[in-house]
Specification:
With about 270 residues, this protein is an alpha/beta fold. It has nine helices and eleven strands. Helix content is about 40%, strand content about 25%. Strands 6, 7, 8, 9, 10 and 11 form a six-stranded mixed beta sheet that branches. Keywords: Transferase.
Length: about 270
């Protein structure tokens, strides 16, 4: 594989569309409105990024995309656009784990975390993304300087209340006698569920709530995937689903409202 690839990378798993263009050592990034706007804004955003950099589509060598987990519509949008671009240009795709992108964003944003990862290979970074419906996409990641992010378990879908106990279990299992500083948490669930985030912080877990699958993280992981020979056929541009149910039934929503009302009275 070329050491200085030309790649376009995109992620639409959250409420923001994140884009990155890599050409050699240079990187251009862009963030656009996501959600319902993603399908309309994604292709124009890709073209605008190419125009800004003065890079023709013919120069691209692969299309990288965040495969999830994340919002169902967003994942389908990312996969279909990545596949369409790749097929149209005769290029391979580079599937990227969206939760790894969030971990990389936390590493870039938080100097103490970056230092911890370099000095202590046993450091665990929990990526905790708001999955709506009072649930969280959760996955622990480790950092290896020679290869980058390594998944320590499969991504899971948890009730929000569970994330504190499970993440804290890694604190007590840390090689450090105190456990402090060896476990970190990042992602949108920290803002969505502040009580759990507060409990994590009180236990010594470092928190990076602003981490997101943003352009700078896309660029790093896309380059790494290219260098590791992970490019594959466009037909394999498939989403990573963790939740097999996208919405609650009317009865389930009614039950949740009753439970919430009872909790308020308690």
């Amino acid at each position: 594989m070329s050491e200085t690839p030309c790649l376009i990378a995109l992620d639409t798993a959250t409420e923001v569309v994140h884009l990155a263009l890599c050409q050699g050592e240079r990187t251009w990034v862009r963030a656009l409105g996501g959600g319902a706007q993603a399908s309309a804004s994604l292709l124009p955003g890709v073209q605008a990024l190419l125009d800004e950099a003065g890079v023709p589509r013919s120069a691209l060598q692969a299309i990288a995309f965040g495969r999830g987990p994340g919002a169902f519509t967003g994942l389908r949008t990312a996969c279909s656009v990545a596949q369409g671009l790749a097929l149209g240009l005769g290029l391979p795709v580079l599937p990227l784990d969206t939760l790894a992108l969030v971990a990389e964003s936390a590493r870039q944003r938080c100097t103490p975390l970056a230092t911890q990862l370099s000095d202590h290979p046993a450091t665990v970074v929990w990526v905790l993304q708001d999955a709506r419906m009072s649930e969280v996409y959760a996955q622990p990641w480790g950092w290896r300087p020679a290869q980058g992010w390594c998944a320590l378990a499969q991504p899971a879908l948890w009730p929000a209340a569970r994330l504190t106990d499970t993440a804290l279990a890694h604190v007590t299992a840390s090689p450090d006698a105190t456990g402090l500083g060896r476990v970190w948490a990042c992602g949108t669930a920290l803002a969505a569920f502040p009580e759990q985030a507060q409990a994590l912080g009180a236990a010594g877990v470092g928190c990076v709530p602003e981490a997101a699958p943003e352009g700078a993280a896309l660029a790093v992981l896309a380059r790494q995937a290219w260098a590791q020979g992970l490019a594959c056929d466009a037909a394999l541009a498939l989403p990573l689903y963790v939740r097999d149910k996208v919405a609650q039934t009317t009865a389930e929503r009614a039950a949740d409202r009753v439970a919430a009302a009872l909790a308020e009275r308690a």
